[in-house]
């Protein structure tokens, strides 16, 4: 695992997670609380502000990864955190709208270690709550009168379009070996990278930066998404459910595109042949999943995945280096990228 | 029923349904076809462009009511249909996004006389397809560079917020007699009127009209929504499924807020007492629904509903009269309002 050493950079953190939390969470909370009461309750539950009985938890859930990226990128282009506060909140709303629907679609019963919204409130209301967060996110962005309003609104709408395209492709594409990896990249660029790109590019749009800066930031977000998603796929198979907050091996149980499995299937060995049989079968018992995990590792899928994730992280940082950000913000983003991919946040 | 006589107005129709269809449908079709292929297919099916096997139907479904209102209102404020072509298409996309999700939520198996999208493609993909239409609608509006772009984007986002609030309220509120009618009005103003207001007000925003014109158009849309929804509730109970395209008495079977029933429950008679028992029971057999329909009519619920629908149509036309539109467009909208409420379109 690539754990960049950030302790020795001499960097005085511009943005502790606490800072992002105190800047962005109040906006998220206030926006959500203004929704119709039932929708407000479901969204507040999903976001971790209240428990299933409606009692305050004293916390907000999630790592606010996208808000942290946007806030750090804002510093990098000479803006203050307040200049993109609404957009950072809106991006978290947008991300969470997709999670609420995703859990219904995947029939995932757990989200961040708690029952998913649809398990608590039913699928019908959870569909509306996801819709409401999606609409609210775009409303916040559209209503913000600051510079770059139109460009930022377009970036948000386009990011959402891509996420939905990626989710649909993920549900419908049957990934085999070989061709599967190009398709996998495309799905990840849509469903995972698009919001990270949006996070990084929004402050540059607000600051009126030229196209080569926007392109560098988009490239950084694209590779960050790939590095993160591949690492996430590794975690799904071999990670600790206490860290991921989700049942182990959900992706391979559902035969969702999983990079280590695709890499292992491409290996063209007796081991990968046996894995292929299981993957195209319908076994979802723990023993089946365990055998698939073991075969994937034996066929080199885990090693390839970890190596490629590191490679994409490197590419993300290369693109970041071309975005002409302030050195302090670059260091901050470098540390953030590493935390995102390696889940040390 | 209030059937306004439009044949004798001497009005040379500015906008036949055919004109709206030829202006707006190509934009809708083109936007939807650019979606990710699976989502494009589901949305094209829902919109009636293709059948469930993917073959072209040679038609587009729906009456494009909202697009027709917007196009007529554009003429009324001195714009050409092309000036709001994208917005008219976007409003139809938005409306249809809510229908796709609504059918899942209500478990409605029929839409416009055909199997609902979720019945054909499954709920998971239909959730994403609804999301995609919602996102696409806002993207079209946000990306249109014409005058009033920001205000129109805000109007769309706000309209969607209201529709979702109304849908949530409809699912969660237990309507009883008395207080129920105020709550009913609120739900309808949100879930039905909001998009009609958006249709009428968008051209005025584009043309930079003053606040009193906007307020008159919003008032017209609000009352039009109430007139339409109450008339629709009457149709649900006593209408012809061949006209509505939906099974008869779906609303009362699900105990959805239905104005004639609420009015009958308020009557405070032995008949309404028996109706109350049935309404709070869980019977959904055809004989139960027939008895509820008969009791509703006997207690005066149908009469009250039909009278109130006419009253709201009158109020809508009064507001329209204050919007300072061109006489030809006013006449056109008057005819449209009547067709919408009385389903003679």
TrEMBL record, chains A, B:
Domain of life: Bacteria
Keyword Magnesium annotated: yes
Keyword match Metal-binding: yes
InterPro entries: Isoprenoid_synthase_dom_sf, Polyprenyl_synt, Polyprenyl_synt_CS
SUPFAM superfamilies the record matches: Terpenoid synthases (SSF48576)
Keywords, sorted A to Z: Magnesium, Metal-binding, Transferase
Coiled coil residues, start to end: none
One Pfam family cited in the UniProt record for this chain: polyprenyl_synt
Family of this protein: Belongs to the FPP/GGPP synthase family.
UniProt-listed PANTHER family: GERANYLGERANYL DIPHOSPHATE SYNTHASE (PTHR12001:SF86), GERANYLGERANYL PYROPHOSPHATE SYNTHASE (PTHR12001)
Protein name, entry field: Polyprenyl synthetase family protein
Lineage: Bacteria, Bacillati, Actinomycetota, Actinomycetes, Pseudonocardiales
